């Protein structure tokens, strides 16, 4: 059976996948700077005998594997598999042999796992290409961590054309899930993410003489509450939405000084593109009017980020059945909605997509740190499953 062959190859190449992952972990590069990472991926695909294009969205790599099974069924179908490849500006605290050599840069979100897994997936698929029809498009994507997101740039440069995939799969490490398990969720899964930059200007002065001033901090306080009200009273309560301000700075600085200006930065997240657009307009109008009504001047700048991520329900339920067949039903679990964001969402807005979670935690070994922390790591036994499962999902999808 093809499933057994894929499993066998995934186990056979496990040590190689670990080596790939450790090389990438030791040599992380920030978003839009993945020059050596792109070269490394290209070298591996060349070694595997897989044709590719290097330099898509600057550092991205796109490979193609064409099935050679006799017969015509599925020959024209195309399925895409995506892995991201950038790292984060974090100083690694792990004391491991494969610790980052690039001080202050770390694969703290598992993109080294995603890339090494897809490389081995490619190797497996290339070895069994005589057992399936259709084309596998391999997308090694840069700059997931930073706006405007590498996915949006790759799409603009035609990654979903020539040939055009009918569906796409992506996976992401998930420390809360123990190694050996997979998490899936059909429908709405991850939120859109916009950045809010609020500037409130008033008239500074002595804190004991507020009647001679226009207090921008007080105005900003009212605006923060009012923006929360937009979510709670204008948004449909069945649509997840959240507004959070995480940064406040003011000019001047003392307990008895009212500043001339205060600046705030925050985020707005939701799971409905129509409501997202409406909320932006409501926020802009409210900020302007409230600043003016309180005697000051307030402006809101919205940096539009990634859209919300939706897993196609039909595709994801198919993928769940295949994952249960490959991993065992007890090892495939339901995922809750997350208000974090992912630029895989751009693909999900263009075609049926399935973005699932790979269990990487091991509480017995103390491997429990969340992503985006300086102690993040994975149980590398996850690499026994990551490559094989993605290969199996691809060939099953092509067989329909």
Commentary on this structure:
The structure is a single chain. The protein is an alpha/beta fold and 400 residues long. The protein has two domains: 280 residues, Zn peptidases (Aminopeptidase); 110 residues, Alpha-Beta Plaits (2-Layer Sandwich). It is 34% helix and 25% strand. The chain is built from ten helices and 16 strands. The strands form four sheets. An eight-stranded mixed β-sheet has the order 1-2-4-3-5-16-6-15, sandwiched between helices. A four-stranded antiparallel β-sheet has the order 10-12-8-13, with helices on one face. A two-stranded antiparallel ribbon has the order 7-14. Strand 1 and strand 2 form a beta hairpin. The longest helix is centred in the C-terminal third of the chain and has 21 residues. The radius of gyration is 24 Å and the shape is elongated. The mean pLDDT is 97.
What distinguishing features does this structure have?
400 residues, alpha/beta, Aminopeptidase, Alpha-Beta Plaits, 2 domains, eight-stranded mixed sheet, four-stranded antiparallel sheet, 10 helices, 34% helix, 25% strand, elongated
Question: What's the structural blueprint in terms of helices and strands?
Answer:
Layout: H1 2-12, H2 14-26, H3 35-48, E1 52-56, E2 60-66, E3 78-84, H4 111-127, E4 135-141, H5 150-156, E5 167-178, E6 182-184, E7 187-190, E8 194-201, E9 205-206, H6 216-234, E10 241-250, E11 257-258, E12 261-270, H7 273-293, E13 297-303, E14 309-311, H8 313-327, E15 332-334, H9 345-348, E16 353-361, H10 383-398
Parallel strand pairs: 3-4, 3-5, 5-16, 6-15
Antiparallel strand pairs: 1-2, 2-4, 6-16, 7-14, 8-12, 8-13, 9-11, 10-12
Helix pairs in contact: 1-10, 2-4, 3-4, 4-10, 6-7, 8-10
């Amino acid at each position: 059976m093809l499933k057994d062959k894929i499993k066998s190859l995934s186990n056979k190449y496990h040590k190689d996948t670990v080596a790939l992952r450790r090389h990438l972990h030791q040599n992380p590069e920030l978003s839009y700077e993945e020059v050596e990472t792109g070269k490394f991926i290209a070298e591996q695909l060349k070694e595997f005998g897989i044709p590719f294009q290097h330099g898509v969205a600057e550092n991205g790599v796109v490979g193609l594997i064409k099935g050679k099974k006799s017969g015509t069924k599925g020959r024209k179908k195309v399925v895409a598999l995506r892995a991201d490849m950038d790292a984060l500006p974090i100083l690694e605290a792990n004391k491991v042999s494969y610790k980052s050599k690039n001080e202050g840069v770390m694969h703290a979100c598992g993109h080294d796992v995603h890339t090494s897994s897809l490389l081995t997936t490619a190797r497996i698929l290339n070895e069994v290409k005589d057992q399936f029809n259709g084309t596998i498009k391999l997308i090694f994507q840069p700059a997931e961590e930073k706006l405007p997101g590498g996915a949006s740039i790759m799409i603009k440069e035609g990654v979903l054309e020539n040939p055009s995939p009918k569906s796409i799969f992506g996976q992401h490490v998930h420390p809360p899930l123990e190694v050996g398990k997979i998490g899936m969720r059909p429908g709405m899964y991850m939120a859109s993410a916009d950045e809010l930059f609020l500037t409130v200007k008033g008239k500074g002065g002595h804190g004991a003489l507020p009647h001679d001033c226009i207090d921008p901090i007080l105005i900003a306080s009212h605006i923060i509450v009012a923006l929360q009200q937009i979510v709670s009273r204008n948004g449909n309560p069945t649509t997840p939405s959240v507004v959070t301000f995480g940064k406040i700075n003011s000019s001047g600085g003392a307990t008895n000084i009212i500043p001339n200006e205060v600046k705030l930065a925050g985020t707005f997240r939701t799971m409905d593109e129509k409501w997202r657009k409406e909320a932006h307009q409501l926020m802009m109008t409210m900020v302007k009017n409230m600043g003016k009504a309180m005697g000051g001047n307030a402006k809101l700048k919205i940096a539009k980020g990634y859209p919300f991520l939706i897993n196609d329900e039909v595709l994801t339920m198919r993928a769940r059945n295949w994952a249960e067949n490959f991993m065992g039903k007890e090892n495939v679990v339901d995922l809750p909605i997350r208000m974090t964001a992912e630029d895989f969402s751009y693909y999900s807005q263009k075609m049926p997509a399935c973005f699932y979670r790979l269990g990487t935690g091991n509480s017995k070994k103390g491997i429990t740190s969340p992503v985006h922390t300086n102690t993040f790591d994975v149980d590398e036994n996850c690499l026994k499953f990551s490559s094989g499962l993605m290969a199996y999902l691809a060939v099953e999808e092509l067989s329909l």
